[in-house]
Amino acid sequence: MSKRYYYLILIIIIALGTYLLLRQDSVTPTDGPLSAKQFPLPKTESTEEDPSDIITTNPPLEKKENTRPVNAVSPDWQTKLENTLRTQGGDSVKDIEIKKVDSRVWTQDGVSLNVESVIVTIKNHLNQTTTFRLLVDAQNGKILNNWDQPIIEYADPTRQPRIKVDPRYHND
Amino acid sequence: MRVVRQRMIKPFKNKFPVRNLFLILPLLGILSACNPTEITGSGVRSNVISNDGSFDGKAYVYKDSPAIFAGKNYGPSNPDMGSFLDRNAELITDNTNLTGDCSIDLFFYGNHKVSLEGCLRVLSDTDSTQVVPRLENRTFIFNPGTPEFYQTNTLYHLSLGTNTFLNKLSYAYNEIHALPLSIPKSIPSYLRNSKLFWFKAMSSIDSKLFKYDYLTAFANCTAEEGAAYYSPAGPELCFGFQSEYPGFQFVQDPSVIYHELGHALVSVMLNMRNGTSASDYHLYRSGMGFLGYDEAKSINEGIADYYSFVINKRTHVGEWALGKTFKQSRALDESDPLHISGIEETPEGRLSYPQYLLYDPNKPDRILEDEHYAGQIVTHYLVALTKTLKNECNLTSEKDGGHDKVTSYMMLLLAESLSELGDLKAKGVDDFGAPFASNIFFNNLDDKNSWLWSQTVNPITYRKFFQVFAKNIYKYITGNLCPGFEKNESEKLLDDYGLLLFKTYNNNGNSTKDRSLDFNDAVYFIPTQGLTPVSEDNRRKSVLISKQLIELAQKTTTHNERVGFYIIDNRSDIDFFLKQLLFKGFTVPLSTGVASVDYNNNNILISPGEVVAVIPNLLNNSNSTMAGVQLLANDWDHVDVVDEATGNFKPCVIDSVTTVDQGAESGRTCTSTDTDYQRLIKNPLTGKFPTQAAAPVCLVQLEEGTSSRWVSQNEFRKKQGLSLLDKDCLGYTSTGSSDSDFTFNPHECLVRFLPSANEAFFSRIDSQKTFYESVVKVSDQGEFNYGNLLVMEVNKWIPPGTKFRCRMRARFSNCSDCYTDGTNANDDFLDYEYNGSKPYKVINFDFDVNE
């Protein structure tokens, strides 16, 4: 083997060694960080930088994707949404408040859409209110998802609404 | 400055303590010397003392409910709350109004105290906007019985509960992040940045993420009679009243305040992994519980009851607010005298699953599906574990008997478990101080479908929760904090409660889509993990049943009254149900112009144009009780898409019911399950449908000459003399000439299960019985829980006589082959497999559309 190869191998070994050394330096090895119990520090706002300060935050995937939304943003989406909610709620709905949280491009099932994330508060004819979240198509106001529903608890569990079995099934 | 001081008169629960007179009389003398002037307000005697600054921000509070102080004969009408106040004034807040601040200490390469200004706020009612300011004398001492008095007390108890939680979370964070980096952890190290140890960061960018800037409690909530609620989108808490008992309010019972706060804390813990900073929070937030009864909701109730025990150390909840009004207070351990005989703190006497799922100790003969009753099993187990750890970890000699320490252990387990289960970013573990970069997922399928997976497809059940919880006991308690509590002991206690429902701890860190990838492929420091099996010798009470033993009920000669599916097409019932759904936050976007309750004809058949509720009546053919039965009617991978232009498909052969002769396919994509979840929607940019996709559950029978085959609804709508346009289909939304509906699925043009009402849940089915016979028939009212219902729309253009087959999928919590099939050393199925048929028994719902 020529001298040139020896030098090449030497360079590779040095580079690898340096890399591993740097990697060890930059990260505390497998023992983990020192615990608060071991080294109690004064309870003050720390000015030192910790790794969670310097993270590069990954924006949500749907914001990162370079996909063109196929729908337009219509100024009417809110009115259309309100109509949809009133269709379901009928005469029980007294008041609807729609608070826009965020507008974004949302990709699901291979389709990118302009969507609105909203908080909806509905008051019924008994002045009871309910609040939950919706994801809505920014063009036609179509509801794409709902979440963060309330947990309503009755002191008397029999007050939970239920549906009676039709007596024709069992001739009760 | 003068302070109005309410006088505390604490009634004696038992005999008058004559012996204490020697102590009480001198004390009264001292107190009267401090309180020179007496005034009267709201029928309660008060004293006036000067505030030298030591009363700043303080008030006198009731530390427990009248039921505790005054005994069981004290009635719920017009309670004299002034007589239950503690003798020492307590700090309510340092702020000048009824808002509270929070802070948490997090140790991660340095100690960091993170403070949130205004994390709590109390208002009177949902219409109120003004927070009650401090009095001129710089205190919050309001006359007992006034709305301000109750708001003050509510803030006191909420602050106590919140600060306790943050202290325990701080303990959990610091303990687990002091462990080696090689141990996979769920509570993220970047909590300080994300501020997801509470509902949001307190900066302007986040102020619009919720309805309010604070966790807001309505202490005198007039909107809800006989109820309290937690609403995560607020976030808000509402404490109601009961008009039958004047002067009665839910906030008079601190255990109920802790319970409702417990729901808020569950919500916090579920979402701790769902962002690294305010700029990248996941679009959705995790929750526990769907519509009506289900197991996630029951576990949520159990944890909320347990949180009351964490704060007040009492093994009973709601003696006043629930007990005095409707005789519905709840015990938290088996030694409570409320229980029926036979329930005791022995392996045989534990409140076990599924036997006691519907057990109401106040009315033991009543059968009712209710998440609070089912949640008692969770609470009893958590309290039993707390007691066991106090002994096993030698903590009973501590001043408080080890309560503070062990409940910190328990909150560590809960925070670690819930943050894993609610992980919508789906990464599961982190690299050094930050999420790892590679595109591998370990929780809830992936970041796009994690909400669907965690809430519907593979939601939290008793099996899933206690498997993760047991894994964390093994990792953190046995493995670190208290090695004396061994794996066998943990498994035996779980089994005493019938909760040893899993075969392994599922702790080998497989990715959600590929069994050959594990934590080590994503994070250099975490080595490949082993799979820990449950010791089968410890499984004595936890009975597992094969999924093959569940099926649809059928009429037989011995059971000629049995019904396979109940149909409800009564217009008023369905109309009321849909309104109730909306008020519970479940929007079911109804189709316009092609189906409506106006077509409902109440003939208990399925007719064109109707919106009907479908209740499958499942039969348990085994000799043990099945529990936690889930029936899914959402889109799944059960077809082979044969035409990209139309998305038309052949159904896969998945059972002996739909055969090749009937148009089904057994090769091509039917031989595998898609690892990515994608619905069968046309891509408007390419004009094509995906070749691999999850399809709607309902197929339709197409008659061609003398033969017939099961096809897509999209194929059918263009044949059989029909030529239905998109706008004539179910689920098509178009409100203007230029609008298009890009999420429209033409393969559910004719019948479809509505989003938010396409999953049904059943508490338990007794051996050799149907669900109806096990629960509904023997209940007081003969009623179905809303959680039992699926809602289906039927297109008005369907020719009568058209045949449909809907392929639903069933599984249950105590199932032996719904989570593993014995291969791979009983390792759990991967998340993507829940997109197919393997974990389920397919339930075929066949029907003809009526004339």
Q: N- to C-terminal separation of chain A? A: 97 Å
Low-confidence stretches of chain A: 20-66
Tally of contiguous helical segments of chain B:
16
Radius of gyration of chain B: 29 Å
How do the helices and strands line up, and which of them pair or pack?
The complex is a heterodimer of chains A (172) and B (851).
Chain A lengths: L2 H24 L34 H4 L12 H13 L3 E16 L2 E14 L4 E9 L5 E5 L3 E4 L7 E3 L8
Antiparallel strand pairs in A: 1-2, 2-3, 3-4
Chain B lengths: L1 E5 L14 H14 L2 E5 L2 E7 L7 E2 L6 H5 L19 E2 L7 E9 L3 E13 L23 H30 L14 H4 L20 E4 L8 E5 L4 E4 L14 H17 L24 H18 L3 E2 L5 H4 L3 E2 L39 H22 L10 H19 L8 E2 L2 E2 L14 H8 L4 H20 L5 H10 L22 H4 L27 E3 L12 E4 L2 H13 L27 E6 L1 E3 L5 E7 L6 E3 L7 E3 L46 E7 L2 E5 L1 H4 L34 E3 L5 E7 L5 H6 L6 E3 L4 E5 L8 E9 L29 E8 L3
Parallel strand pairs in B: 7-8, 8-10
Antiparallel strand pairs in B: 1-3, 2-3, 4-5, 6-7, 9-10, 11-12, 13-14, 15-18, 16-17, 17-27, 19-25, 19-28, 20-21, 22-23, 22-28, 24-27, 28-29
